[in-house]
Each structure stands twice: as C-alpha cells, then as structure tokens.
C-alpha cells in the first residue's frame, strides 16, 4: 500500500488592508494584492497573480457596490501558503452590510442579481468560494485559488533576507482593523508549526 506525500508549507503569509468602499478603493485593493503577492514571490503577470487580481477586483467591486455602508470601509485579507512546487492563495473581502450573496443562485444570465456577473466570474475562476460571518456586522466573501507545478523557490542572499521588510501600499495608513478606517497588517511565517495562521484552508 502506498500513500501520497503532502508537501509541507515552506512559508505562510498574511496581509490585511482596508479601503474606501468606492470604485477607486476597489482598484487600489487589486493593485495592493498584486504588489503583496510580488513581495511573497508570486510575480505580476504570472497565472496565479492574474487570477488573484481578478478575484480581488470582482470581490472588491461587489463590496463597493452592494456592501457599501456610509462611513465604513471594506477590508481585504490575503493568505498565501507556498510549498516547494505549489501555492494556494485565499482572498477575503469583508464589509459591514447585512445583505449576503447566495453562492447557489449566482448565474451569468442575470446581470442584475445580487453581485451580478462579478460573482459568477469568481465562481468560474476560484477553486472554491463562499460567504461567512465576520466578527461584528456584515459578512466576509472569500475565494481560494491555487497553482501547481511551480519551480522551486531560490534561496535569496543572506543580506537580502535580513533587509527585506513588509510594508503597505502607498496611501494606506496603519491602524487597527475594524472596517471604519484605513489599516494595514502584514505577517510572514516560516514552516507550519511556528505561528501558522489559524484560518481554515479549504480544499
């Protein structure tokens, strides 16, 4: 009897930012996601980066259009898990509006449905997606995608590892996340077992 070998994660990354619930905020969220993935070794223009960019764009646009509450922002959370030859990215967009899309009724045929064709595109692009409760009012819409057959990451020079920092995108200030003001929070972890994120990964 043989058993399949599961690749242990080489790195776990997490990043949270909040943006105004506007078209500009949705655009900034997409750009921030591409930049953050680049920091984590997923280059812009790669299939995984392009897919995540589309997922963020659609979920953020949906939050700005359907989840907007006056005086409240929406939050983007990215989680990236990298093994030697594969990677998984989970995108979470949270807002404070009580209306929730129903994944079972999303259809490309009805552009006026809750979320319109944007969520149908999310369903087509993502490996999995759904809606969850969040702490406080509102909900979190999440999507997860992965990529296999990646080249093994090269070890950066020692001086680069020591000088590398995690910073937020231009124009995003640091503050506690509560969907009521701009914030940025980043975390990078080593192999599983050393402070790994407790967020459930869906496969």
Chain-wise SSE layout:
Blueprint lengths: L10 E10 L2 H17 L7 H20 L6 E10 L3 E10 L20 H10 L2 E6 L5 E10 L9 H6 L20 E6 L14
Computed Rg:
17 Å
> Strand count, sense and closure of the main sheet?
6 strands, antiparallel
Rough shape? globular
Low-confidence spans: 160-177, 191-201
Q: Which percent bin holds the helix content?
A: 25-40%
Average pLDDT confidence is 76
- Helix- and strand-based class? alpha+beta
Query: What series of H and E elements makes up the topology?
Result: EHHEEHEEHE
Q: How many DSSP H or I helices?
A: 4
Oligomerization category of the chains in this entry: single chain
Strand count: 6
User: Strands of the largest sheet, in order across it?
Assistant: 4-5-3-2-1-6
Note the gap between the termini. 24 Å
Percent strand equals 25-35%
Q: What does this entry look like structurally?
A:
With 203 residues, the protein is of the alpha+beta class. The chain has four helices and six strands. A six-stranded antiparallel beta sheet has the order 4-5-3-2-1-6, with helices on one face. A hairpin with a 3-residue loop joins β2 and β3. α1 packs antiparallel against α2 and α2 packs antiparallel against α3. It is globular.
Summary?
The protein has 203 residues and is an alpha+beta fold. 26% of the residues lie in helices and 26% in strands.
């Amino acid at each position: 009897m043989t058993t399949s070998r599961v690749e242990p994660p080489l790195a776990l990354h997490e990043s949270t930012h909040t943006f105004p619930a506007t078209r500009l905020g949705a655009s900034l969220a997409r750009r921030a996601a591409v930049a953050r993935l680049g920091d984590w070794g997923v280059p812009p223009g790669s299939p995984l980066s392009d897919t995540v960019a589309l997922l963020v764009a659609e979920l953020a646009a949906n939050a700005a259009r359907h989840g907007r509450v006056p005086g409240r922002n929406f939050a983007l959370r990215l989680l990236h898990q990298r093994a030697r030859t594969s990677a998984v990215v989970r995108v979470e967009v949270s807002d404070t509006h009580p209306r929730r899309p129903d994944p079972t009724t999303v259809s490309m045929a009805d552009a006026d449905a809750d979320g319109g064709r944007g969520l149908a595109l999310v369903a087509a692009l993502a490996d999995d997606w759904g809606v969850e409760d969040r702490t406080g009012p509102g909900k979190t819409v999440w999507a997860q995608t992965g990529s296999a057959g990646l080249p093994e990451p090269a070890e950066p020079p020692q001086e680069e590892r020591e000088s590398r920092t995690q910073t937020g995108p231009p124009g995003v200030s640091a503050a506690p996340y509560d969907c009521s003001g701009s914030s940025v929070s980043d975390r990078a972890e080593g192999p599983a077992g050393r402070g790994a994120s407790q967020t459930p990964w869906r496969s």
